[in-house]
Amino acid sequence: MGPSGAGKSTLLNILGLLDQANSGSYQLQGEAVENLRERKRQELHKKHMGFVFQAYYLIDDLTVYENIETPLIYRKVKKAERQAKVAETLDRFNIVAKKDLFPHQLSGGQQQLVGIARAIVAQPKLLLADEPTGNLHSSQGEVIMDLFKKLHREGMTIIQVTHNEKYAHYGSRIIELQDGFIRKDVALQTPASTYSKQPQV
Description:
Elements: H1 8-15, E1 27-28, E2 31-32, H2 38-48, E3 49-52, H3 64-74, H4 79-92, H5 108-120, E4 126-130, H6 138-153, E5 157-161, H7 165-168, E6 173-178, E7 181-187
Parallel strand pairs: 3-4, 4-5
Antiparallel strand pairs: 1-2, 6-7
Protein backbone atom coordinates (compact mmCIF):
# COMPACT_ATOMS: atom_id res chain seq x y z
CA MET A 1 0.00 0.00 0.00
CA GLY A 2 0.99 3.64 -0.32
CA PRO A 3 0.15 6.93 -2.06
CA SER A 4 0.44 7.45 -5.82
CA GLY A 5 4.10 7.61 -6.82
CA ALA A 6 5.27 5.59 -3.82
CA GLY A 7 6.78 2.89 -6.08
CA LYS A 8 4.15 0.15 -5.74
CA SER A 9 3.79 -0.70 -9.43
CA THR A 10 7.54 -0.34 -10.00
CA LEU A 11 8.16 -2.84 -7.20
CA LEU A 12 5.71 -5.30 -8.79
CA ASN A 13 7.47 -4.93 -12.14
CA ILE A 14 10.83 -5.67 -10.51
CA LEU A 15 9.44 -8.69 -8.66
CA GLY A 16 7.83 -9.88 -11.91
CA LEU A 17 11.15 -9.54 -13.80
CA LEU A 18 9.69 -6.91 -16.13
CA ASP A 19 12.11 -4.26 -14.84
CA GLN A 20 15.51 -4.35 -13.14
CA ALA A 21 16.33 -2.60 -9.89
CA ASN A 22 18.97 0.13 -9.85
CA SER A 23 20.58 -1.31 -6.74
CA GLY A 24 20.23 -4.04 -4.15
CA SER A 25 19.63 -7.76 -4.60
CA TYR A 26 16.49 -9.76 -5.40
CA GLN A 27 16.55 -13.43 -4.45
CA LEU A 28 14.06 -15.66 -6.30
CA GLN A 29 14.07 -19.37 -5.49
CA GLY A 30 17.54 -19.00 -4.02
CA GLU A 31 19.04 -17.22 -7.03
CA ALA A 32 20.15 -13.60 -7.29
CA VAL A 33 17.97 -12.34 -10.14
CA GLU A 34 20.36 -9.54 -11.13
CA ASN A 35 22.97 -12.19 -12.03
CA LEU A 36 20.67 -14.18 -14.33
CA ARG A 37 20.83 -14.07 -18.10
CA GLU A 38 17.82 -12.63 -19.92
CA ARG A 39 16.74 -16.05 -21.20
CA LYS A 40 16.68 -17.47 -17.66
CA ARG A 41 14.72 -14.43 -16.43
CA GLN A 42 12.14 -14.92 -19.18
CA GLU A 43 11.90 -18.62 -18.35
CA LEU A 44 11.25 -17.89 -14.66
CA HIS A 45 8.65 -15.28 -15.55
CA LYS A 46 6.87 -17.60 -17.99
CA LYS A 47 6.91 -20.73 -15.83
CA HIS A 48 6.30 -19.41 -12.33
CA MET A 49 4.51 -16.05 -12.46
CA GLY A 50 1.06 -14.66 -13.10
CA PHE A 51 0.37 -10.94 -13.49
CA VAL A 52 -2.89 -9.05 -12.98
CA PHE A 53 -2.48 -5.64 -14.61
CA GLN A 54 -4.49 -2.59 -13.61
CA ALA A 55 -4.99 -1.79 -17.32
CA TYR A 56 -6.05 -5.38 -18.21
CA TYR A 57 -3.71 -5.76 -21.24
CA LEU A 58 -6.02 -8.26 -22.90
CA ILE A 59 -5.19 -9.07 -26.52
CA ASP A 60 -7.79 -7.22 -28.59
CA ASP A 61 -8.08 -9.67 -31.49
CA LEU A 62 -8.38 -12.77 -29.28
CA THR A 63 -11.62 -13.98 -27.70
CA VAL A 64 -12.07 -14.34 -23.94
CA TYR A 65 -11.35 -18.07 -24.30
CA GLU A 66 -8.18 -17.43 -26.32
CA ASN A 67 -6.93 -14.72 -23.94
CA ILE A 68 -7.24 -17.10 -20.99
CA GLU A 69 -5.62 -19.93 -22.96
CA THR A 70 -2.55 -17.88 -23.97
CA PRO A 71 -0.37 -18.53 -20.86
CA LEU A 72 -0.95 -22.26 -21.25
CA ILE A 73 0.21 -22.14 -24.87
CA TYR A 74 3.39 -20.30 -23.79
CA ARG A 75 4.00 -23.07 -21.27
CA LYS A 76 3.47 -25.73 -23.95
CA VAL A 77 0.52 -27.36 -22.15
CA LYS A 78 -1.11 -30.04 -24.31
CA LYS A 79 -4.37 -29.16 -26.04
CA ALA A 80 -6.66 -31.47 -24.04
CA GLU A 81 -5.27 -30.20 -20.74
CA ARG A 82 -5.53 -26.59 -21.96
CA GLN A 83 -9.18 -27.08 -22.83
CA ALA A 84 -9.92 -28.58 -19.42
CA LYS A 85 -8.11 -25.81 -17.53
CA VAL A 86 -9.75 -23.00 -19.53
CA ALA A 87 -13.20 -24.58 -19.13
CA GLU A 88 -12.68 -24.87 -15.36
CA THR A 89 -11.50 -21.26 -15.14
CA LEU A 90 -14.40 -19.91 -17.22
CA ASP A 91 -16.78 -21.72 -14.90
CA ARG A 92 -14.99 -20.51 -11.75
CA PHE A 93 -15.38 -16.88 -12.87
CA ASN A 94 -18.91 -17.40 -14.17
CA ILE A 95 -17.98 -16.14 -17.65
CA VAL A 96 -18.71 -19.21 -19.78
CA ALA A 97 -21.31 -17.20 -21.74
CA LYS A 98 -18.61 -14.60 -22.59
CA LYS A 99 -16.01 -17.04 -23.94
CA ASP A 100 -16.49 -16.15 -27.63
CA LEU A 101 -16.60 -12.37 -27.10
CA PHE A 102 -13.71 -9.99 -27.74
CA PRO A 103 -12.39 -7.56 -25.10
CA HIS A 104 -14.11 -4.51 -26.67
CA GLN A 105 -17.46 -6.28 -26.20
CA LEU A 106 -16.95 -6.51 -22.42
CA SER A 107 -17.44 -4.00 -19.63
CA GLY A 108 -14.43 -2.83 -17.63
CA GLY A 109 -15.34 -5.17 -14.76
CA GLN A 110 -15.68 -8.13 -17.12
CA GLN A 111 -12.30 -7.36 -18.70
CA GLN A 112 -10.77 -7.27 -15.21
CA LEU A 113 -12.24 -10.71 -14.43
CA VAL A 114 -10.79 -12.09 -17.67
CA GLY A 115 -7.41 -10.59 -16.79
CA ILE A 116 -7.47 -12.29 -13.39
CA ALA A 117 -8.63 -15.58 -14.95
CA ARG A 118 -5.74 -15.43 -17.43
CA ALA A 119 -3.26 -14.76 -14.61
CA ILE A 120 -4.24 -17.80 -12.54
CA VAL A 121 -5.18 -20.38 -15.21
CA ALA A 122 -1.66 -21.85 -15.23
CA GLN A 123 -1.53 -21.97 -11.41
CA PRO A 124 1.62 -19.84 -11.03
CA LYS A 125 3.74 -20.05 -7.90
CA LEU A 126 3.78 -16.25 -7.65
CA LEU A 127 0.81 -14.01 -8.48
CA LEU A 128 1.49 -10.28 -8.75
CA ALA A 129 -1.73 -8.26 -8.68
CA ASP A 130 -1.82 -4.51 -9.35
CA GLU A 131 -5.18 -3.17 -8.04
CA PRO A 132 -6.95 -6.42 -9.05
CA THR A 133 -10.34 -5.26 -7.75
CA GLY A 134 -10.11 -1.65 -8.90
CA ASN A 135 -12.77 -2.00 -11.63
CA LEU A 136 -15.06 -4.45 -9.86
CA HIS A 137 -18.26 -4.00 -7.85
CA SER A 138 -17.78 -4.61 -4.12
CA SER A 139 -19.48 -8.02 -4.34
CA GLN A 140 -17.22 -9.05 -7.24
CA GLY A 141 -14.20 -7.74 -5.35
CA GLU A 142 -14.99 -9.87 -2.33
CA VAL A 143 -15.39 -12.95 -4.54
CA ILE A 144 -11.93 -12.31 -6.02
CA MET A 145 -10.36 -11.75 -2.61
CA ASP A 146 -11.92 -14.98 -1.30
CA LEU A 147 -10.49 -16.75 -4.36
CA PHE A 148 -7.04 -15.25 -3.68
CA LYS A 149 -7.28 -16.45 -0.09
CA LYS A 150 -8.10 -19.97 -1.31
CA LEU A 151 -5.22 -19.93 -3.82
CA HIS A 152 -2.85 -18.77 -1.07
CA ARG A 153 -4.04 -21.61 1.15
CA GLU A 154 -3.25 -24.02 -1.70
CA GLY A 155 0.33 -22.75 -1.91
CA MET A 156 0.36 -19.68 -4.17
CA THR A 157 2.31 -16.61 -3.05
CA ILE A 158 0.30 -13.46 -3.81
CA ILE A 159 1.57 -9.89 -3.72
CA GLN A 160 -1.19 -7.34 -4.16
CA VAL A 161 -1.09 -3.59 -4.65
CA THR A 162 -4.29 -2.04 -3.30
CA HIS A 163 -5.73 1.18 -1.93
CA ASN A 164 -8.51 -0.77 -0.22
CA GLU A 165 -7.82 -1.26 3.52
CA LYS A 166 -10.37 -4.06 3.77
CA TYR A 167 -8.83 -6.05 0.92
CA ALA A 168 -5.32 -5.44 2.27
CA HIS A 169 -6.34 -7.28 5.44
CA TYR A 170 -7.04 -10.44 3.46
CA GLY A 171 -3.27 -10.86 3.36
CA SER A 172 -0.83 -11.96 6.05
CA ARG A 173 1.39 -8.87 5.79
CA ILE A 174 0.95 -5.21 4.86
CA ILE A 175 3.91 -3.20 3.59
CA GLU A 176 3.41 0.55 3.23
CA LEU A 177 5.66 2.37 0.76
CA GLN A 178 6.44 6.05 0.53
CA ASP A 179 8.79 7.67 -1.99
CA GLY A 180 10.29 4.29 -2.86
CA PHE A 181 11.03 3.27 0.73
CA ILE A 182 9.29 0.99 3.21
CA ARG A 183 7.47 3.17 5.73
CA LYS A 184 5.77 0.37 7.66
CA ASP A 185 5.84 -3.44 7.57
CA VAL A 186 3.16 -5.17 9.61
CA ALA A 187 2.52 -8.92 9.95
CA LEU A 188 -1.18 -9.60 10.38
CA GLN A 189 -2.68 -12.19 12.69
CA THR A 190 -4.80 -13.98 10.09
CA PRO A 191 -5.66 -17.60 9.29
CA ALA A 192 -2.96 -17.36 6.61
CA SER A 193 -0.32 -17.89 9.29
CA THR A 194 -1.85 -21.22 10.29
CA TYR A 195 -2.06 -22.80 6.84
CA SER A 196 -0.56 -26.27 6.82
CA LYS A 197 0.99 -25.68 3.39
CA GLN A 198 2.90 -22.41 3.40
CA PRO A 199 3.45 -20.73 0.02
CA GLN A 200 7.06 -20.47 -1.02
CA VAL A 201 8.86 -18.51 -3.69
